[in-house]
Structures are given as structure tokens and as C-alpha cells.
Amino acid sequence: MPASSLETIVSLCKRRGFVFPSSSVYGGLGSTWDYGPLGVELKNNVKRAWWRRVVHERDDMEGLDAAILMNRLVWKYSGHEATFSDPMMDCRACKARPRADHVFVAQKGRDPKGMIEINAAIAAKELACPKCGSKDLTEARPFNLMFRTSVGPVDTGDESGLVYLRPETAQGIFVNFGNVLDTMRRKLPFGIAQVGKAFRNEITPGNFTFRTREFEQMEIEYFVRPGEDEAAHEMWIAERKKWYLDLGMRADNLRVREQEKHELAHYAKRCVDLEYLFPMGWSELEGIANRTDFDLKAHSRSPGNPDAVGELHYFDQEQKKHYVPFVIEPSAGADRATLAFLCDAYEDSLVKEPPAEDTAKLRELVESFARSVGRREGMDADVKQRLQAAAEAIAAELPGSLPRLIGLMDDADANKIEVMKKVRGVGEKTAEEHTRTVLHLHPRLAPLVVAVFPLKRNEPRLVEMARGIKRDLQRAGLRAVYDDTGAIGKLYRRQDEIGTPWCITVDFQSLEDQTVTLRDRDSMQQERAPLGEIGPTLLARLR
Prior knowledge:
The chain is 38% helix and 22% strand. It has 19 helices and 22 strands. 36% of the residues are buried.
């Protein structure tokens, strides 16, 4: 079964070295995460797959890596200084600071028409604090999302050295449009792709790596003739959806959603979101927008922008005239895509039934947990109902529900109940012996491609041969590891859990006939393969 909650994915990531809380030795920093040894490999593979698809495999794309720190005027004329903000309000009773527009939507059932309508509703006591219910709220005010810093050795205090950590990578592409056009001798249509860090001082980050203050974007700005923008938009919608599906994402978990008119950014003619069914529900995975000619005009010299040094336009040789191209922008997040691939690949399954007495003991503990939840005071009613219903269903369906119990044991709210410690003590041991956790990652995304084991680690000939195979595979361009820290069955399970597509076992027969056991992660089938064919075989399967 897929992950029943985001906590299940978080637990796997921490346990197996994908993602760690940042600065954890000092208590951490909210919504900041560090990618561990396996996480950085997975995320890098996602970025490589994206770059290969949108740059290397196309004839109409160029790459770029623009600076994070840019002239402040970039953000002035892009509109970010004036408009890149969220409306915030304070609750005088509990000191909470919610987003005013989110509260308005939740309590009025529609989007507000602007800050004036939000403040009118606050003044009329029509809105209440979502945390404590008080209607004693301050006026909503804009909160700018850009991180500020200064350049130079001294902060003069007059903002002369003010710069921002870029909130998006797109503007670096727009201000370099002329440079790329001139040096690469491009004709329309063509695009510029970039992967890089962006920073937003989000008020309500959360859901693990889904929304953070520091994140990595994978963006394309695709320049076309005015009038050809709608066809190009449709092309990129289809192409970007296909990329996710080609890398193994299940079609049922991916959908295309047209943004409604009131959702569109002020510069957008149209925007389509690719949404993924995360454990917390449908959420944006990538946006594909028609930005028209807004950005190139914004950074061109004009009465509205006397600071620009020239005009960002295109001379069309066929039409013998200058014009400003329209722009189609497919904008994806590397962190969000990595999380989506992890969620989509995750599977827990029962491989064999535990003994009846173990099942009975575990059922009794889960039932006790359900009763404890029912008696718990001060717990949110929705949380209590969710935990109690989940526990009762799991208890009734054991041992088949053992994979769902793993998700419950990873639930942060469930772990506030004391009896969960006893459930974990028995449940984790039972799950380890009788369930199988697998990440069905596409081989091109998997952190490791192949793991090599000797049947016996105390047999020097097997160890030497296994280590040699690992070195040869690594030299052939395959990410390979050697492991002899457990029994073969346990090593297989460990590699399944981190998504390694293939495992190789070197046994005594290998010494005689130069063949090894090649095991497939998804089917668990094993085959004997000649040693000399392993590298070419796996490289062919990766394509």
C-alpha cells in the first residue's frame, strides 16, 4: 500500500538518510532541511533528468546559471518590491499571526477582492482567529516575502547597499535574454533553462519539504512570437506532464488544473498547474504560465523604467521588424518534485503472516491505544476522531493491516499517547520480520543503481570478487555500493527500502563459472548472469 501519511515518508527519510532536520544539534530551524547521503543523490538525479529532457534532448534550448544576488532594481521593476507580499493579521488574544486572505476564504467561502474587503470584514467582526476563535484582530497588512541583506563591509542604514536573496530564478533569465540571444545566435522560438536556489520568507511553510523558505527551482522561459504563444503553451503542458509519467509517476496521482481568472498573477494571460496527490491532498507540483511580454518590457528602457540601459526585444529577419517576444514559463520545484517521486514510489506490503499469538498481542495493544485516544482530554476533536478510527480499523484487520500500522506508528499525534510506545515496541519488530517497504523509483532517479554483496563476508575470495565487481560497475558509470553488513535477505530488504533497482550476489558458483545472481527490486526475481554482461545489461535498462 502507498504511504498513508506524510509522517511515514518523513520517518523513512530520517531513518534512511534522505533528509534530516537542519541544525538539529541546536534544536533545528523551522522548515529548513538538509539532504543526506541518499537524499542528495535522489534530488541531483531529479535535476539531471530534468536538464537532460529540457536542454540536452531539445534543439531549441540553452542553459543558464544566474547569480543569487542581483541589482535591487531588478526586483523594483519586476514588481516584487511592491507586490510580492502576503496579507497578515495578528490575534490580540493568543498572539497568533495567520494569513488574512486564507482566514477570509476559510470563513467566508470565497476569495477576497482585496485588502480593503479583508479589513472591512475584520472591522465588522466577521472573521475569527483560526487558533482561538477570538475576533479581536488587527488590520491586515502586507508582509514582504523577500529576504533582505546588504552588500559591502558596512551597513550604512540608508538602504544604499540593500539587496535581496532572489525569490525566484526567472528574473535572472529575463535580464540575460539579450546576452543569450546575441551570443548563441538564436531564432524564435527558443528557451532558456535554469536550476537554482530561491528564497521566500514564507509565513506558513510546512508539510516537510513541500513548502520551505529555501528551495530549488527548475525553470524555463520559452520565448515565442506573439500569436504563437497559445500553441507553445499547450505544447509545454503536454511535455511537462509526460516527463513525470516517463519517470514512473502514476497517472492517477497527476492531474492538470486550469487556474481560474481570480487566481492568475497580474502578468499572466493563462496558467495551468500540474497537481500531484500528496498524502495531504492535491497540491501544485508545477505551474506552466503564459507570461505574455510583461517581463521583457518591464526590464526595457521606457518612461516607466528610466534605469534600464536598453530594450529587450527581438529582430525578426523574416518579418523585418522588432518586437517583444511572449514567454511561456514551465516552473517546477526540485524539492517538491523529489518529494512527489518519493511519495509515488513508496509501498508497504505484508510478505508473510506473523504467528497468531503475535497478532493477538499486537491487536490488544492497538485496541488499548484506541481507548486511550478516546479518553484523551485537550486533543483536537478532528485529530482524536482520525486516530481512533484508524486504530480501530487496523486492530480489526490485523495482520493484513500491518503496513497501515507502520504509518500510524510514524504519526506525530499518535506518538503523544503513552501506550504508543508499547505498540511501537511490538509493532516495529513484527513489521521488520513480516512486511516489506519498497521505493519503486525509476532507475534513473534511484540514489543507487546497484548493490553488490558477497554470500559470506568471511570468505576472502567472495569479498575480493564482489569488491572488484563494484569497482568495475562504478567505472562504467553506474552508482554502485558494496555491503556485507548482514545476511543476504536483510541486505535485500535494506536496498528495497532505499529504492536500489538491482542487487548482485557473489556466491561460490561465481568463483567457478564467473556468473552472479542478479536480483530485481520490483519483481524480486533472480537470474544468473555472466559477469561480463552485467554492466552493459544494467546500462541498457537505465536508458
